[in-house]
Amino acid sequence: MASQLLLPDPVGLPPTVMFHREHPSEPIVVLQVPVPGATDAETYMVRLDRAEHRTWLEGLKESRRLKDLLQMEQHILYEPGTGYSVGVPDLDRPGPFQESFNTARRQAARGVGVSRHFERRRQGQVPMSQFRMGMLGRRPQ
To answer: What is the Cα–Cα distance from 107 to 76, expressed in whole angstroms?
Structure first.
């Protein structure tokens, strides 16, 4: 059975740590503390529904700003020495270009938009250039 680790001492934290939160309504915040000289990190769960964890969070510098950011951002870079905190974008989340590309792919798979355009072109509703008509083997009009 797993045991609950105590939260790290704020004085012993490295220069930068990361806070992650899935949704502001969830009471769990993940604290990621990088291990010096390694590529991995120690992970702690800060439960905002527990008094001792809220007290630990309030003991950090600029804790009010950090709490406010936890309500708005999913990923936060925090410097324990200065109290500086800033929201970090989620690099795994698709950007607006990727979302529009995925939407276009879904519509093309369903035959929405693209096939309608070519159907109208075949019926002669969409004009075709003389060059394209020549390429298709049709006589220019």
So the answer is: 35
pLDDT, average across residues 75-97: 85
CA distance 66 to 53: 14
Compute the distance between CA of residue 134 and CA of residue 64 in angstroms, rounded to an integer.
Answer: 70
Would you state the pLDDT for residue 4? 66
φ, ψ dihedrals at 19, nearest 5°: -110, 140
Task: State whether residue 109 is helix, strand or coil.
Answer: helix
Instruction: List, for residues 51-81, the tens digit of each pLDDT value.
Output: 999 999 999 999 999 999 998 888 999 999 9
| Distance in angstroms (rounded) separating the CA atoms of residues 54 and 50 | 6
Beta strands (DSSP E) in 11-79 are 17-20, 28-34, 41-47, 75-78
How many angstroms separate the CA atoms of 100 and 94, rounded?
10
Residue 102 has a CB neighbour count (10 Å cut-off) of 11
